[in-house]
Each structure stands twice: as structure tokens, then as C-alpha cells.
Design brief:
Order of helices and strands: EHHHHHEHEHEHEHEH
Bound molecules: 6-O-phosphono-alpha-D-glucopyranose, magnesium ion
Strand content: 5-15%
Number of helices: 10
Number of strands: 6
């Protein structure tokens, strides 16, 4: 039986990818590093520290741990400043409708995000009230593709993974859901999330009706 839903944040509920891109780009430009949208795509779903390592590897840069933390903090300051401009108008189309519908139907809902800024983003969107449990980048040590964040969320919801559906836009996020034994819904192209049980190109198509029809054996 499906009793709960666990949502990734960035790329599922709202599109912060552009804001992350701008902050990493500014940092990289200042350092004389190459950074473009293709490289930004590789950062989808992974933690801040893993992200800076990907960028440094790409640029063949080696720095001390302290220097890496300092640069990641600098990027985060830029990113957090940019979140001030986010408003309740910034849900991805369809996301608010799905969250509202799931609550109306009495399902438990959790967040399962790698971001340490998840609460700030949810507050900017005025979305805190949709969630029974918030799992974010501060909740677990191992980030996606490890299933830990989703296991944290399901445990807090007091549900088994097989009773939960995970919504994810990242390849590594779907890997994490599968590794944890969760049902999975991918948001995005086949090349990225084609390994999910069910896939939609955008959240707009991910209506309660469609999700329920697909998982009808489990309701
Ligand atoms: C999400 C995004 C990633 C980001 C990560 C950490 O998973 O998809 O691109 O790197 O969160 O975000 P943070 O806000 O903690 O830097
Ligand atoms: Mg995401």
C-alpha cells in the first residue's frame, strides 16, 4: 500500500538550478575556472561539497580542505542572497497542485533534499505546511546516490520504503530511491531519469490522477 510521498526539492518543487548555476559561475569566474551549463547539469542532486569537487576535478585544481570549504561557503553566500528574490510564484507548474491534492487525500508527505538551504527555500515558497517531515542536507551524512535521505524521511513518517513514492529529477536521486527500495517517479528526460518506475517530462503532467492510475495496484 502507498501511504506516503517523498519529494526532492530542487527541480521537482521549484527550479533552483539556475540560481545554483549563477552562484557557481560567479565563483568559478573569480577563480579563473571553467564552468558552464553542461557541468552544472552534473551537479543536479548532489551535495555542495561533492559539487565543488566535481568543478575542481574538471579544472584539474587541488586545494587544501580549508580552502575548499571557504570557497563552498562563498558560493553558498551568493546562492542564499539570490533566494531572497524567490516567492510563492516560483513553484514549478503542477507542483503546488500535486502537494495540495495529496494532502487532501490524507497522504503523508516528506521532503528528501540534499540541500542545506531547503527550509529557507520552502519558507520563500510558503510551502512548509505541506510537509509532515523535512529531510534535508543537514539530516544525513551520505548524500544521493546513497538512499539515506529517503530512508531518514520514511523512518520519520513511520513508513516502510515500499509504502512510499519518491519524486526526483536527478539521475542520482532515482538511483537513491531504487537503492532504498522505494517506488520512484522521475521528472525529466529519459536519458536522466528513465530508470524510474514512472516518468514525466515535467511536474505539470505529474497529476494525482496520473500517479494514482499508474500505481493503482498499490492504493
Ligand atoms: C540540491 C541541488 C544541488 C545542490 C544541493 C545542495 O540537491 O539539486 O544542485 O548542490 O541541493 O544544495 P545546498 O543548498 O546545500 O548548497
Ligand atoms: Mg533535484
Amino acid at each position: 500500500m502507498i501511504k506516503g510521498f517523498i519529494f526532492d526539492l530542487d527541480g521537482v518543487i521549484t527550479d533552483t538550478a539556475e540560481l545554483h548555476y549563477e552562484a557557481w559561475k560567479k565563483l568559478s569566474d573569480g577563480m579563473g575556472w571553467h564552468f558552464d551549463r553542461e557541468l552544472n547539469e552534473k551537479l543536479r542532486g548532489i551535495s555542495r561539497m561533492d559539487s565543488i569537487k566535481v568543478i575542481m576535478d574538471h579544472n584539474h585544481v587541488i586545494l587544501t580542505d580549508d580552502a575548499v570549504v571557504e570557497l563552498a561557503t562563498k558560493k553558498n553566500d551568493l546562492y542564499v542572497d539570490s533566494l531572497e528574490s524567490m516567492t510563492p510564484e516560483d513553484y514549478l507548474p503542477g507542483a503546488r497542485e500535486l502537494l495540495t491534492h495529496l494532502r487532501q487525500e490524507g497522504f503523508l508527505v516528506a521532503l528528501g533534499s540534499a540541500s542545506k538551504n531547503a527550509i529557507k527555500v520552502l519558507q520563500q515558497l510558503n510551502a512548509m505546511h505541506y510537509f509532515d517531515v523535512i529531510g534535508d542536507g543537514n539530516s544525513v551524512a551520505k548524500s544521493k546516490p546513497a538512499p539515506d535521505i529517503f530512508l531518514y524521511a520514511s523512518e520519520k513518517l513511520k513508513l516502510q520504503p515500499s509504502n512510499c513514492v519518491v519524486f526526483e529529477d536527478a539521475e542520482k536521486g532515482i538511483d537513491a530511491a531504487i537503492a532504498g527500495g522505494f517506488h520512484s517517479v522521475g521528472i525529466g528526460p529519459k536519458e536522466r531519469v528513465g530508470h524510474a518506475e514512472l516518468r514525466f517530462n515535467t511536474m505539470k503532467e505529474a497529476t494525482y490522477f496520473e500517479v494514482r492510475s499508474f500505481f493503482s495496484d498499490f492504493f
